[in-house]
Fold this sequence. Notes:
Layout: H1 3-9, E1 15-16, E2 19-20, H2 33-52, H3 57-72, H4 85-90, H5 93-96, H6 106-120, H7 136-143, H8 146-158, H9 163-176, H10 182-187, E3 200-203, H11 205-208, E4 219-223, H12 231-243, E5 249-253, H13 266-277, H14 281-296, E6 299-302, H15 318-325, E7 329-333, H16 335-342, H17 353-356, E8 364-369, H18 380-390, E9 401-406
Parallel strand pairs: 3-9, 4-5, 4-7, 5-6, 7-8
Antiparallel strand pairs: 1-2, 8-9
The structure holds 1-O-phosphono-beta-D-fructofuranose.
Keywords: Hydrolase, Manganese, Metal-binding
Organism: Streptomyces pilosus
Pfam families: ARMT1-like_dom
Amino acid sequence: MTSGARRRARVTVIRMSDIPAAPVIVADEPGTFPHGVLAERHPAIVRQVREAFPYGPARHRALDALLAECAEGVVAPLPADAHDRERWRAWGMDTYTGRSWFDVPWLWSESFFYRRLLDAVGYFGPGPWQGVDPFRPSKRAELDSPATDEELAALDDLAGRPEDEQALALLHGSLWGNRADLGFRLSAEGAGRSAAVSALVADDSERLWPLLGASSAATLCLVADNAGRELVPDLLLIAHLLAHGRIRRAVLHLKPYPYYVSDATTADLVDAVRRLTGAGGAAAAYGRDLWAALGDGRLALRTHPFSCAPLPYADMPDDLRADFAAATVTVVKGDLNYRRLVGDRYWPPTTPFADLTRYFPGPVAALRTLKSDVITGLDAGTEAALTAAEGQRWRTAGTHALIQVRT
Ligand SMILES: O=P(O)(O)OC[C@@]1(O)O[C@H](CO)[C@@H](O)[C@@H]1O
């Protein structure tokens, strides 16, 4: 048994309500996926950001210091004057300061890395780089790519199909759009479009449709993940559901600031809607509908600070809980949100998804391609078949996906 498998198999005796808690994922073991993210992906992200802008010497020095700290040093706190220092203290900064980046919960160290990177590039200012998204060039390049043109052109054919076929195609577009994750592409092999061949490892979509259509008064909350080629299909799905009276209102949760390279902010939402309106054909009609829905409040935006928290959703604050509670269903997109939804732990893969999401204040659906070790809700046969065919690679390669629903 490899050490990773031993770790996955080990179930602690600590109990969270009636579910035995599994080990929290920590990036301390060379050769594991989380270790690779801290040791290789984060330095690559720093290099990419440095090359994308003509930063001055102060920014270069800050990026050098962050690189050195991540490689050899220990977690340093946010500067004393950081606007969100108290928030990060509440999110565990004092506990983890002074410890190796590799020895603290992986969810926490990744999240804090992005916060510190924004500091290094002067994002929170004051100064000339205030508000300049360090990931904007790569996000824009993807949105403007020929691949996006192709996807938008395909909407012209879809428009002639029966409504339920359109809805299914757009749901799958939103699901597989989650592969368009620019951070993931920095280190994933074989994560190109052509590899999107494999089946879903879990598909509860039959339980999702009744929530999206049972009542024209429905509100859909969608917790977005990546900008560009993930956000565009998310928006197309929302536009379709609104246009066909499957929902009356949608609430879209975006990130309040740049995060995990390609996570969608309000600026990215504007870029995506403008990309649609400027595209012509059916895409432009979707874009105009979305513009109108934003204007009259049928599509509302949220940028809650907790969207960039290094914590599971089980710890969400009351105002966010109330927002989700008011929805007919909340659709949670992507790998990181899945980790936060079920807890970033080495769960036995057959742990019921419904048990781990029981705390969530309403029906919840996860749409995710598999890009990290966390997995729940599989039946034993599916897990055995995946492992027999691929070892553990199916967990992290981004070639498998799931739709899981807790009503
Ligand atoms: O949330 P997303 O965009 O689907 O994926 C985020 C991701 O690339 O980042 C983490 C590693 O940095 C992994 O959880 C996952 O692979």
